Amino acid sequence: MSEPAKRVKDLATKVRILKALKDGASREEVMRQSDVKRSTLSTYVKNEAQIMEAFEGEKFHARRKRLRTAAHPQLEEALLQWIVTARESKLPLSGPLIRASREASVRRMRRPR
């Protein structure tokens, strides 16, 4: 089988690559050592601020590959809080139960106040 065309690097690797560039290593050398293409390296440099902020702010785990966040952060936070409370109460949790709680949270958030 052939090797996958897309090899996504984790956050720690991206930071290591950016630091190597800042320390004076040439782009060609970094590309060869890190096994990344020129366009990928350019994207890392372009998004350096977001990558460094995510890494240093500990917003994401170092092994994380993408910097996506939830589409609805308030809903995610409410659901996480519900799961934590349910676990503390030793309630059995299942996929359908969590899904039902999510739907109830959505209805509460959409209700006019």
TrEMBL record:
This chain belongs to which protein, by name?
HTH CENPB-type domain-containing protein
Q: Which GO terms describe its cellular component?
A: nucleus
Keywords on this record?
DNA-binding, Nucleus
* InterPro entries (UniProt xref): Homeodomain-like_sf (IPR009057), HTH_CenpB_DNA-bd_dom (IPR006600), HTH_Psq (IPR007889)
Please name the GO terms that the record assigns under molecular function: DNA binding
Give the classification, highest ranks.
Eukaryota, Metazoa, Ecdysozoa, Arthropoda, Chelicerata
- Record keyword Transmembrane present: no
Record localization: Nucleus
Q: Major place of localization?
A: nucleus
Q: Which Pfam families match?
A: CENP-B_N
All copies of domain HTH CENPB-type, residue ranges? 63-113
Signal sequence region? none
